[in-house]
Design brief:
Elements (H helix, E strand, L loop, with lengths): L1 E6 L3 H13 L3 E7 L5 H7 L4 E5 L7 H11 L5 E4 L1
Parallel strand pairs: 1-2, 1-3, 3-4
């Protein structure tokens, strides 16, 4: 199954997307995070095949997270949520 990491600061949206992923055949949720403060650590600990990333989050924006991920994991696909 496709391992997905989800970053979304809106609790309701994050929980809804996490539930959808958990219930969808062929997908495995490796983490659902409210912010990108530990994006590199999360990616190393629970490696995803793809990342769903919110653009505006407190602390570290999705844009900043993508920059960090590109440096360390250049081939990791990231889909931006708006």
């Amino acid at each position: 199954s496709l391992r997905v990491a989800l970053y979304e600061d809106n609790d309701t949206l994050r929980e809804g997307l996490a539930t959808l992923l958990r219930l969808s055949p062929g997908f495995s949720l490796v983490g659902a995070y409210a912010n990108g403060a530990h994006v590199l650590e999360n990616t190393q600990t629970s490696p995803p095949d793809v990342v769903l990333m919110d653009i505006q989050m407190p602390g570290r924006s999705g844009i900043e997270c993508v920059s960090l991920l590109r440096e360390r994991y250049p081939h990791l696909p990231v889909l931006m949520l708006t």
